[in-house]
UniProtKB/TrEMBL annotation:
<dbReference type="InterPro" id="IPR001926">
    <property type="entry name" value="TrpB-like_PALP"/>
</dbReference>
<dbReference type="Pfam" id="PF00291">
    <property type="entry name" value="PALP"/>
</dbReference>
<feature type="domain" description="Tryptophan synthase beta chain-like PALP">
    <location>
        <begin position="74"/>
        <end position="378"/>
    </location>
</feature>
<dbReference type="GO" id="GO:0004794">
    <property type="term" value="F:threonine deaminase activity"/>
</dbReference>
<keyword id="KW-0663">Pyridoxal phosphate</keyword>
<dbReference type="GO" id="GO:0009097">
    <property type="term" value="P:isoleucine biosynthetic process"/>
</dbReference>
<dbReference type="InterPro" id="IPR050147">
    <property type="entry name" value="Ser/Thr_Dehydratase"/>
</dbReference>
<dbReference type="GO" id="GO:0006567">
    <property type="term" value="P:L-threonine catabolic process"/>
</dbReference>
<protein>
    <recommendedName>
        <fullName>Threonine synthase</fullName>
        <ecNumber>4.2.3.1</ecNumber>
    </recommendedName>
</protein>
<dbReference type="GO" id="GO:0003941">
    <property type="term" value="F:L-serine ammonia-lyase activity"/>
</dbReference>
<dbReference type="InterPro" id="IPR004450">
    <property type="entry name" value="Thr_synthase-like"/>
</dbReference>
<dbReference type="GO" id="GO:0009088">
    <property type="term" value="P:threonine biosynthetic process"/>
</dbReference>
<dbReference type="GO" id="GO:0004795">
    <property type="term" value="F:threonine synthase activity"/>
</dbReference>
<comment type="similarity">
    <text>Belongs to the threonine synthase family.</text>
</comment>
<keyword id="KW-0456">Lyase</keyword>
<feature type="modified residue" description="N6-(pyridoxal phosphate)lysine">
    <location>
        <position position="111"/>
    </location>
</feature>
<dbReference type="GO" id="GO:0006565">
    <property type="term" value="P:L-serine catabolic process"/>
</dbReference>
Length: 412
């Protein structure tokens, strides 16, 4: 293995830390982030080399914080980028693409990427128990990857998650612990547990490794766009980590000569019922006011105290993007319009992305003449119940042709 992964560094003061299960700076409590020897990566990687790599997120291994070959999630990533012509027409932009992580492997969300990296690293550091604080998708992915790799796992979630997301963890025979309270309470408890037990909490003490996995969604977009940075990328935000890491992927691709530098905008999307990041952005401040009681059907995004919210705002501002949020009604409309035009059934988070993209185009933050990528991060079957009262009823008939003829409303 080439020596690309350098160390962990504080995002605030730049102090270096060893490549261990560490996530905050001892001096200023800034978050730690993986850094690399880019001059070495630049000499090593090329478009051709990446294209001939494995058909998975691991073709981007030189940009990931491991010291040995990956062992977890070898089939994760390289999800389709769809040329969404019908949706483009309805939303009124020249070109629109769907990065479709609703079909990611194994658990149908972008979280399969982050868990693959975190658990590969957990193996390198000889951890046997893995855990997480989750709004649902992370729990599903952690449980699946843990089962397939011989880890013991515990997942902690708010007790009131969607049934499909609870079952989607339990099926892997993980321990599911439902916490009475919002995600932020779950997360605080996990920090306490992580201080007491030697467990790899993928989004607590392993967060620097976990977070880097999100970059692969950004690299894949670039490659699938023909090694070009899209003019606009719209990304839904929970903690804000995915958004900052897609930008990091774009920056690293420029730095290592995989794409040409050009202006691009990164836009953030949230649900109005839990919009700490978009509210701060719109007010023009860096100061994020926590949302104590999130109230939205987009439960996967319902984080009231977003860990990377500050950095997400910086990224959106620096790139000339905008931050938008949408109501539950608009989320449902977003889910339906994506399904009806492109045949993609997204979860509520995808409805947030589509709904916000529509608003950004209407308001002119995304000009009609531009090229847009929407990051669709989770699968609609996991949150299907939100559509219950919003779809046409089925026609129930007796099994006779006369009865069938009566319900057909177009010419034979
Ligand atoms: C976790 C998640 C996100 C965003 O997560 P960040 O914390 O902002 O990185 C987006 N969509 C879905 C479906 C998720 O599960």
């Amino acid at each position: 293995m080439k020596e690309f992964f350098d160390c962990l560094k504080c995002k605030e003061c730049g102090r270096s830390y060893p490549k261990e299960a560490l996530h905050v700076c001892e001096f200023d409590f800034g978050p730690l982030e993986a850094t690399y020897h880019y001059h070495k990566i630049k000499k090593y990687v090329s478009r051709q080399m990446i294209e001939s790599g494995p058909y998975s997120m691991w073709r981007y291994e030189p940009f990931l914080p491991l010291e040995e070959e990956p062992t977890v999630g070898l089939h994760t990533g390289m999800t389709p980028l769809l040329d969404a012509k019908r949706l483009a027409k309805i939303l009124g932009v020249k070109a629109l693409y769907i990065k479709n992580d609703t079909v990611n492997f194994p658990t149908l969300s972008f979280k399969d990427r982050v868990v693959s990296v975190a658990l590969s690293r957990a193996k390198e550091l000889h951890y046997e128990v893995v855990s997480c604080a989750s709004t649902g998708n992370l729990a599903n992915s952690l449980a699946a990857h843990a089962a397939a790799n011989g880890f013991k796992s515990y997942v902690l979630i708010p007790a009131d998650l969607e049934p499909a997301k609870v079952i989607g963890s339990l099926v892997y025979n993980t321990r599911v612990i439902g916490i009475k309270g919002s995600y932020d309470k779950v997360n605080r408890l996990c920090s306490e547990i992580a201080g007491k037990y030697r467990w790899a909490f993928v989004n607590v003490n392993f967060r620097p490794y976990y977070a880097e996995g999100s970059k692969t969604m950004g690299f894949e977009i670039l490659e699938q766009m023909g090694w070009k940075i899209p003019d606009h990328t719209v990304i839904c935000m929970a903690s804000g980590s995915l958004l900052t890491k897609i930008d990091k992927a774009y920056q690293e691709a420029i730095l290592c000569g995989l794409v040409e530098e050009k202006p691009y905008a990164i836009h953030g999307a949230q649900a109005s019922g839990c919009n700490p990041i978009t509210a701060a952005f719109k007010k023009g401040t860096d100061l994020i006011r926590p949302i104590a009681n999130p109230n939205t059907i987009a439960k996967s995004l319902a984080i009231g105290t977003p860990a990377d919210g500050y950095y997400a705002i910086q990224t959106i501002r620096r790139t000339g993007g905008y931050a938008e949020d949408v109501t539950d009604q608009e989320i449902i409309e977003g889910i339906k319009i994506l399904a009806e035009t492109e045949g993609v059934f997204a979860e509520t988070a995808g409805g947030v992305t589509v709904g916000c993209a529509k608003k950004l185009i209407q308001k002119g933050y995304i000009p009609q003449e531009s090229q847009v990528v929407l990051c669709i991060t989770g699968n609609g079957l996991k949150t299907a119940e939100v559509l219950k009262d919003h779809l046409n009823p089925i026609d129930v008939i007796d099994p006779y042709i006369q009865d069938f003829d009566k319900i057909v409303d177009f010419e034979k």
